[in-house]
Predict the 3D structure of the following.
Amino acid sequence: MTTTGRFTLPSEENFAEKTRELAELWGADAIRNSDGTHLDDAVLALGKKVYSAYFPTRAHNEWITLHMDETPQVYLLTERVLAEGADVDIPLMAGFYEEQLRPNRDADPHRYWEVVDRTTGQVVDPARWTYDPRTDVVHVADATPMHEYTASFLAYIIWDPVEMYNHLTNDWGDKEHEIPFDIYHEKTREFVFDTFREWLKDNPQTDVVRFTTFFYQFTLIFDAKRREKVVDWFGCSCTVSPQALDDFEREYGYRLRPEDFVDEGCYNSAWRIPRKAQRDWIDFLSGFVRANVKTLVDETHAAGKEAMMFLGDQWIGTEPYKDGFADLGLDAVVGSIGDGTTTRMIADIPGVRYTEGRFLPYFFPDTFHEGNDPSIEGLDNWRKARRAILRSPISRMGYGGYLSLAARFPKFVDTVTRIADEFRDIHERTGGRAAEGELNVAILNCWGRMRSWMAFTVAHALPNKQTYSYYGILEALSGMRVNVRFISFDDVLDHGIDPDVDVVINGGPAGTAFSGGDVWKDPRLVETLRAWVRGGGAFVGVGEPSACPWQGRFFQLADVLGVDEERYQTLSVDKYFPPVTPEHFITADVHLEDGVLEAAARAGYAGNVSGCGGGVGANIGGIDFGEPVANTYPINEDVTLIRADDGQVQLAVNDYGKGRGVYVSGLPYSAANARLLERILFHASRNEERYDAWSSTNPECEVAHFPEAGLYCVINNTDRPQSTDVRLPGGASEHFDLDGSAIAWREA
């Protein structure tokens, strides 16, 4: 087994000997610096490939302090203020962190700002309000009493949000705040490129320029208590300037409003159904960003170095899944590995020579402190990522932060040694090829391919009560034996469903970009999907799929799914639930256990334990349906009802012509839920006879088959020993006893 290579090690000053020791243990062939660290000559002399983090738009306060009107800007929405009389004052900075943000007192506020009566939604005539730059207060005259008012205003970002986060996390004390700058301004753009050219000359030892990242930060705004206030990993709010707004108007023929950015306080979250202005701004911004990224990449190559993009920090505008990304000529993309979904987000990016994952935990004191065991998080992170790597391999792995912190934890050092060796072993055995995918699954939403593996996300890999019921779909699919693509409603309207697609999944809360909203009123969309399913396709809906109140239905594909949702309009029309089907192909691997049955009976749900109830909450034999979707019901008694709870459908199947629809109320990630979804996909597409081969009898263990290598492996996705039988083609099986986190290989 190869014990060296495919590993990038973080290091720092005055740590050369320990760096050499850990590089040998972990098989590192490359060394990088992290934010706030530098590599000294002794570390560079170790002879490893050198990655240098490069920040194009910060870390040069000597420049930007002389040009403070050229920092990035953001449209902010004030708190709502109630008018109790004919005049009302709106303080701009109430609730915002003044060390991060400062109102733009330079541009004409009456041209670039907006005051809105939030009770009526009407824009207040600029003649009725004034701005006092001494107090940063907007004064509104002739207000309507008992109406609420807001101001949307431009603010300079005067502390780089990521450097600020690192500063606060690591308690960097008196360290000077790094001020970001915006290359949309010609002088600053010239400075950025001139500085980079000099940097290339001054750093001949650098082999890979790790751009961290480029020009515009995802939306990351802090409140007055230094807490995160607005976080959107896809947000384009921090990208505006008066000059850019004016150029947009000239190019697109209409003027953007501040409301197009603050969006009633939603700040254009990816959960919102995208509007024309939002899409146009993304196109405008990405055109500008990519043109300048291409210049940096070309100059990097001209200096004989590789160009690597970090998928994080200032990645906004690069749009790695939008057409044309490959034209930038980047050699690699690296990103933070939070789970299987974020692994696939990196691994599936087209148009680069290789991809790299930065595994967790980050070597920061919030994790590496006395009394904590970072190896627990390290192995948990690896198990989540490994499922996805088997399906779509990243080329390299590594870590970030302060190596001196990690070196104090011998157990963690041993854990990383094991992970790194296993990562290389997977590549060596498979030749870096993906495991076989047996079905083709398409995720259908407003964003489509542009947000591949980015659906249902607010902040990178962080859980959220309102999203986990849907994010689990992606996490389950990330390591499943299926091929996944992302399609938009426009794709379906323009081109129909690709003939090789076996299953389409649509899910999300009503009114979101992921469920679809009013797009379901377009008869062409429902015609296309109905015809496709009736012809043999499979449609899986999660939560509130195809949800839009229209013509007496809420789920516009209720006829396909066999399920609709009562919205309190047809309470006078009775609904009848057919008997629950206690045994079904879909639930064959997730039977109720005796202990659960007993607990259900004790809780008073004895009548439901055959499968229709959630006697011990929403968790039935390991199946977790997440946040309840109230008042769903079968539209007729021909529907196969598999799980229901207190008058709501949790899982149902509906035959529809030659195809099938399946409804699931929610799908948080767990081993049982991943197994449930896998069986749903095979059943919905009428591929039950293909299911057994290369499957595991234990949902905590998964199988990956590599036909070109003549191998298969089985992985234990827990930290506990597990036993399982792997079913092979032809009906044979093989037994495995696996230690916690283990992987076992066999010839196929």
